[in-house]
Design brief:
By secondary structure, this protein is mainly β. It has helices at about 25-30, 45-60; strands at about 30, 35-40, 80, 85-90, 95-100, 105-110, 115-120, 125-130, 135-140, 145, 150-155, 160-165, 170-175, 180-185, 190-195, 205-210, 215-220, 230, 235, 240-245. The two termini are about 35 Å apart.
Length: about 250
């Protein structure tokens, strides 16, 4: 109902802002989840809250190899949907490139940081705006009509990407197996080069993109430790194509 009527602000009563001289009032506290009715006057809501927090907290403290308490799963957001129906408007800073992903599917990649997609109504009023992550796949085009709940863009929450800034051919440098990289089985058993810390400090594995005459178009992309190279030396790549995946230091859902 709120989204259908384009309501921008809603006043919410909360125990954090309750103005009762002692304790909290029933209106600000609201629903008693144990009885499914409005809370009764005199209910020890503070003690109930402390018990609710303390019990799972104790379980988390005492856990060994399992995840206990209320934090049973960590789910990372991987897509952004619009709350409102309207028209898509790209920010002036949003730059995209048509390319293909690892499964050879056509995608539109965001090539910059600090870019936004805005949803506006028929009068041009901004309903909401969304920050578009670098390397995300943009699903909607500038000027598209969208419905509430429609996906605007998607990304991998567990991985950072390094994208090709130009169309050309990959040229690798300082890639020495056993010294600067290992071959590891990663997603779906695919074998990839994974960067390791080199003993020789003069070695710095990096990739360049060159043209057909081996002239460097973009270069100096130095790869950090644990980065996975998803292209090979001599491979032709398109602008916006993923070259490197870097795992984020977060826990995936088990």
């Amino acid at each position: 109902m709120i989204s259908d009527n384009n309501v921008d602000n809603v006043r919410i009563r909360s125990v954090l802002t309750c103005e009762a001289p002692r304790g909290v009032c029933a209106k600000c506290y609201g629903w008693n989840l144990s009885t499914h009715n409005e809370v009764n006057r005199g209910t020890a809501v503070g003690i109930q809250a402390a018990q609710s927090i303390g019990e799972p907290g104790t379980q988390l403290t005492l856990r060994t190899f399992h995840i206990g308490g209320t934090a049973t799963r960590i789910i990372e957001q991987s897509e952004m949907t619009t709350k409102y129906a309207g028209t898509i408007k790209y920010s002036d800073t949003l730059e995209v490139a048509a390319t293909k992903d690892e499964e050879n599917n056509k995608v539109i990649r965001c090539m910059v940081r600090n870019a936004k997609i805005t949803v506006v109504d028929s009068k041009g009023k901004e309903l909401n705006d969304y920050n578009v992550p670098y390397g995300s796949d943009v699903i909607v085009a500038d000027g598209d009509k969208v419905k509430g709940g429609q996906v605007l863009f998607q990304w991998d929450p567990y991985t950072d990407l390094i994208l090709a800034r130009q169309t050309g051919k990959i040229q690798t440098k300082d890639f020495i197996e056993g010294e600067t990289y290992h071959i590891e089985a990663v997603e779906l058993g695919k074998k990839r080069m994974v960067i390791v810390e080199a003993k020789d400090r003069n070695l710095s594995p990096h990739i360049d993109i060159v043209d057909k005459n081996d002239k460097i178009l973009t270069g100096g992309t130095i790869l950090p430790v644990k980065a996975t190279l998803v292209v090979r030396d001599g491979q032709k790549v398109q602008r916006g194509q993923a070259l490197v995946k870097i795992p984020k230091d977060i826990v995936k859902t088990r």
